[in-house]
Every structure is written in C-alpha cells, then in structure tokens.
Amino acid sequence: MTNTLEVITRQKLSLDGEWSFTLDPEKKYKVDEIISASSLAKINVPGSWEEQGFGKPSKHNPIGAWKKLREYEGTAWYVKDVFISKEMKDQSLKLVISGVRWMTKVWINGRFVGEGESLLSDHVLEVSDFTKVGESNQFVICVNNEMNYPLHDSHIHSYHTATNWGGITGGVYLEAMPEISIHDVKMYPRLENRYIDLEVHLKNSHLLDKDSDLSVQVFSKNQKLVCDITSPIEDDQIHMNIPLWDDVIYWDDQNPYLYQLSASIIRSKTEMIDQQVRTLGIREIKAEGKQLLLNNEPKFLRGYVDCCIFPQTGYPSWNKQDYVSQFKTVKSYGFNHVRLHGWTPPKPFWEAADEEGMLVQTELPHWSNLYHHREVEPEKDVHEFLTRELYRAIESLNEHPSFVLLALGNELVGPQGHEALNKQVELCRSLDSTRLYTDNTGFGRLPAHDREGDFFIPSLNAHPPLTNNYAGTPNTSEDYNVVTMQSDKPILAHEHGQFTMYVRPQEAEKYTGILRPHWLNTTMATLEKKGQLSRIDEYIEASGTLQARAYKENIERARRTSGLAGIQLLDIRDFPGQGHATTGILDAFWDNKGTITPEKFRAFNDEVVILMRSMNRTHYAGEKLRVTVDVSNFSNDFFKESELIWELKANQQLLKSGIITVSEIIPGTVSSLAILEVETPSNVSESLNLSVKLVGTKRVIENDWEFWTYKRPTLHKDASRIWSDVPVLKNSLYGAKYQGKIGFQGFSYKEEKNIDLAISDHLSTELLQFLLDGGKAWIIAEEGNQFDEVKTRFLPIFWNYIWFPAQIGTTMGMIIHDHPSLKNFPHDGRSNWNWFYLVDRATAMNLETVPQVKPIVEVIDNHNRGKHLAYSFETKVGEGSLYVTTFNILNNLKRPEVEFLLHDTTHYLLSDEFNPTSNLTVGELLGLFKLKGKW
Hints:
Helix content: 10-25%
Strand content: 25-35%
Number of helices: 13
Shape: elongated
C-alpha cells in the first residue's frame, strides 16, 4: 500500500440513456408481450415519465396546490438490450436502480430476477446468474408508482409536494465485483474511547489464502496518510478499532472536515483484490440532559423543514450542486440543521450536507394515523414495510456524518405514544448507536412517560398550556420554559413559525418544467375582479415586513428558553400545497423575496444571539426603559473580557449609550449580561431603537429592537363638549358627558347645541340623526355591532386560509396611510409591535360596498379572499362627519399607546383638520353597521 490514496474502482456499466417504453394503465401486459412488442415508445433514463411527455392532462383544478401538465399513476415498462463485455467475466454483477417511486420488478433474458420497493434507497439486485458476458442481454424493468400502503400524505408521496411522480430519476447501472469482495463497510466513531469502530463484511473470504489481510488507511483532505492498520482475514466479518491520531480534526457544522477511509483486501501481502472507499467525518452526537452535544459541545439546532419541494420536476434532484447551493443559502441565514419531512433524499443530498456542515434529521416516508391510538395495533403490512425502510435508511446513510437524527415519521401518535414505535426506536439504537432517534416528529405530549426517544419534538405553540396566540407578543420576557420543563431530554420546536405573507404572482415565470403554480389561477382571478392587482407589490412589501418581524420575535422567544435544544422552522421556503402556504422568506426556488436580508435574519438565528427581555415595548414619555440583555451562546467562544456596547437612538439621533465589560459567557447557556435602565425623553412621542453589540476577540454580535414612547394624554379644553354613551371611557375622557340620549328628549327631537363630538361603540338612531344634522361622531366599533366583520390577530394568518379557515386571525398585517389623524402617532406605515394591543383580536370592517371610502389604517386580507378591510376610516354622512375605528381601544385603556391614540384622536376630531372627503348615504351606512334603535 502507498502513502497516497489510490482508488481502485470497480467496473461499472451505465445503462442510462434511451430505453424502449410503454405505459400500462390497465396492467394488461405480461413480460413476454413486452419483450416481443415491436412498437414501443422511447424514453430517457434518468427522468420522469411526465416530463418526457407521458401521461395525460388532469381535469383536477387544485385550489391551493401546484399542478402537473401531465400525470400518470400506474405501471410502466422499460426494455433495453445491454451488451456485457467479457471483461466482466467471473465477476459478481449487481443491478442498481436509483430514484424510483417506488415498486420495481426486473427480468433479464426473459427470466424473473426480483423486485424492489424502497422509497429512500437504491433498488439493488444480484444478476450474475441471469446475464451472459460477451453477449447482448435483454433487460426489462417494470415500475409501478401507485400507493401500495396508506401513506399518501408523506411528502415523498403527496401530490402537494412530490406530485405522485413516476419513473427512474436517478439512473441505472451494472456494477461488477470480484468473486472475493468487500460487501459493506460501516464506521462508528467513538470519541469517548478515541477510536473508530469499523465493521467490514466480506464475500467469499474462505477462498482467500491464509496470509490475506484487510488493510485500512485513512487520508486527510490533502491526501496525507494519517492512519494505516491491517487485520488478518479469518472470516466474512471483520471488526476493527481504529485509534484516533493525535491531530485528529472532528467534523461539525462550523468545520465540516472530511477524511477518506480506504478498506482493501490484500492477498499474499501484495495483491489488491477489492477496495471500498468511504467518506469519513469523525463526530459524535449525543443527548446529555436537555442538551444536544456535538463532539461534547452544546449545539442549538437552527433548523428548517425540507418538505421535498422541487418546483421544476416534482421529484428529488440527483445533482449534488443543487444541494450545495441550497445549503450555502440557508447557512447565510444562520441555519445549521434541516429536518426532512417524511422523506429521505438521494445520495447527492448527503454528500452536499457532509461537505457543507448540515446537521440532518431524516424521516421514514410516513405520515398517517395508524399509530394514533395506543391500544390499536398498526396494520401489519405497513409496519413491516416501514421497518424494512428503517433498516435500509440506517444502513445506507452510515457513511454520512451529517445524518445525526432520525424520526419514525410525522405527527404519528396520540398524547401517550405507541408501543410499536417504541420498539422501532429501540431497534434503531441497536442498529447504530452513533445517531439519535425519536418516535415521531410533532405529536405526543410531555412528560413523555414511557415514550421512547433520545429527544422529542413538540410544537411549542400547540402544546398545553400554550397555543398559537403565544407565538409572538410585545412582551419579550416570555419564553417556552413551561413546555421544556416537562422533559429531562432535549426538546426541538416542531414546525416553528408558519407566518405567512402575500402571494407573489411574479414567481409564475420561474416555472419552466412540468409543474405550474395553479394556486395563482383562483387568486389572480379574485384580485382582478376586486381591482387589487395594481396593489399587489404594496401588499407583498407590507405583509413581508410583518412576517419578518414575527419571525424575529418567534425565534428569539425560542432562543430565550432555557432547556430548548433547537427549532425546526416551517419554513424558510414557501410550501406549494395544502392551500399554498406563503410561509417562507424564500420562494420555492430558494430565492429571497426581498423582505429581509440574510444578515438581518442571522442576527436572531445564529450560533450566538443577543436577546432582549422587557415586559413592555411602549412607555409614557419620560419613563425609564428597563431592559435585560441576554445572550444565547452556542459557539465554542467564551467571550472572555469582551464588551457589551449599547446605544439608544431616536430618529437616528443618539440619546444614550454605554459600554459594559463582560468577563465570560459559558457556551451552551442563555446568560444575562446586563440590566439597562434608561430614562426616555420627556414630552415627546417617538420611536426608539435599542442596538446592542457584543464585541469579542473572535467575533462581533449585533441585534436591535424598537420601543415607543407616548406623551401623557392631556384633557381637551372643551372636554365638556364631548358626549359618550361608553361608560368605560369615563376615567380616560374625564369631563365628558355620559348621560342621556343624544339629540332626543322622550320621543321628540332636541337640537344639541353644546355637543361638538359624540363617541359611541355602535350606530344608534340618535347618533345617526346627530350626524345628519351636521354633528361630528366617532364610532369606536365594538365586535358584533357591524355587518361582515373579520376577526384579526396582530400576527399574520397561520399557514393559510384555505387549510385553516376557522382560525381567529385570517389577515396579513396592515398599511397605515399618511393621515392627519395619525401624524402624532409614531409609526412606519406597517404592522409593528406598538400596534399589538390595538389590533390583536380586533375586528376589521369590510368596505367593499363603499369603494369611495378609503381606509386610514388598511388591513391586508389573505389573498384567497381579498376583502377590502379597514381598522379606521372617515366619511361624510349627511351634513355631519363620521370617524370609525375598530381598534381594541376599550379593552386596553391605560396602555400608553392606547391612551395616546384615544386623546390624540379626540383632538383631531375637534379640530378643523377633520374634514372627510368621501360621502356615505344613510343606506350605505346602514349596510355597514347594525343599527340599534331608540328602544
């Protein structure tokens, strides 16, 4: 053996290229009929059936999914004559079929060879006994892509993602192996014992001479020999411990260092009989308490969910560069982890993940309700198939250090788990103890009791006592500790986020393959009918701004949580099905939507993140801003003698700053660095920005947050000329009149001479008359008092309206138009946390019947529905002027922003600036409000 890696490759014969082909929708053909057929079509391997013109257009018109130009589910036949040269004589031949969904049968020279079934690994068949060397051989492959088991929703199957594709998408080849050969090489790094546990399985070792050895060499990236060890060959199974060398470099997400391991059969000390080369990443993943340790260092998994989305083809790519590009993109946003939702990708994915340093959780192709009821045994054939897939996954992925976690499927269990899955977890551990396993992703309750798992993945916003309403608030002292405290094992956040933004029709031109974004058809028709096409770019920008702000708080909320080991964001990309979920900051093609830069996103999604805890984001002017600055440190940096530099600015002008010395920050912790108390400027309403910078010797970490101050309200000098029938306002609008009916005495009309402004929470007969006669009125609309109200949340709609129409909030943020009524209220024209208590759980009014009325604060409805919604507007009614808000003012009095808006609005309404330009008839007004009569 030499000191440089010399790869002796086995002979391979590619069978890619043109094959004779036919679909068999009625399953009527026999193999002899296919062999003798003279009029078969032609198809190329690799590739899907649909993208090569096979299949038919579907009459299905999905409302919230993409659609293939052609579709086919069923059986198809491939036929090819293959010449096998005499060079392959006396060798063992195996046929490898890659990228098949998902059942195959093979005949060679008219004889049945065998069949394959895997969705996650190659279909491999021994064919030596069926082939003839030096001659042409006829290969027939029958592929069926129908569902043999009830696993329709796993993403490798679902029409919403992988589109029920069919074909051979990875290729076909023959591999020749010596009679005496290396069948398999398995590597298990044991860092605690400082060796690599190596298992090598041979074939026909009994034919070797007694002085034959297995030689194992390990080479560094620069081809330097770092380890050379031999073992005598005594039988077909060899077990070796390879000691780690002194300057060994461990593989991790920051430094994905890869060695090459060569295992060779050496006969008579000189002749190499066979060789296998494996990529070797030396790493150890383990769970210790609530932490995940990679090479004994705590890691926070900053993950996203990959849902098997390939917008041009519908099937997983076999191009490694595609995955390299993906991983470089996600790393630029701070991610180091990916969860594969219900699928296991082909080998090029894993090669790219190894090289780029991604920590990957793979899953069986499984999303079903077969394990929901603990007392019910799962269907035997399904469970046995999944068990076979489990063996294949662990065996085929052994080489890849990026494979660190495995879940048995998506959302499989009820609160208490299932014993059948517990046994599968135990099986996983027995097969490979260098990875971590869990019973399922997403379901089951904590404490886990007898559920088996090295870690668990609950949905933090759907695990009692929390709900989706907790996903983000202005209170940045909140975290998810109430969930993580229920477990003594690592917890990952299941499908975190799921905040949406407006659909982007400009993406349609990117679809040049077999798929089309069919969800746009109904959406665009709706928006065109409603005259909203010209405003789509504005809706995209405004909703994207809210989405980014929601993700920042939601992810920081997770990073503030002690005992949380990571998150799995759903998703960094849009999801093309299940109603079409625009949850991504990237589109389905991995392109940025222009709403947030990688640098801004990484500020709250990196291995070190500065955090801020404060009960309130809004204050009265002159109050102290009290903030705790924390840091989530999952780097290997202790930040010894670092500096924390902070600045508080208003309108880019520095108000206060400071420098605090930080002695040390322990890795793997969420630590408090400082408590800041800063007096805010008095007597001014403004937006403040707190920026914090942690300056260490190795790196600089930055983050920032917005706060708002509001002038304390002052009573209007003419408060006695304000009338209201809303008693809860008495303590806020002090001095106003709160008695009687306005404009009536008994049954008779009475002219109101001493009232300049009327405030109510509903439209009454009296208020209507007051308006018609020239009065000014403000309706602080309470829920239930209007027609066609739409309930909203501050956060954007979860997932989408088509899939979850009954959720509380079904809108996507707001646009605050320039208007004199808000000139003193600090805002940037978009949803921000100072609006939270004003609009969360508020109702929006639908102005579609009165298009002449323009919103002051406009609500962006979800694009599926496209209503014209508003939180506030103004209009003339008769001789009078009406101002309407649906803000949650009455339920949130005494909050600084609410009190300020209440009083500042009354000042505006009593001024000459209140002069609406639109008009409503009485009938139009009565179409908006439920009139409450005198009785």
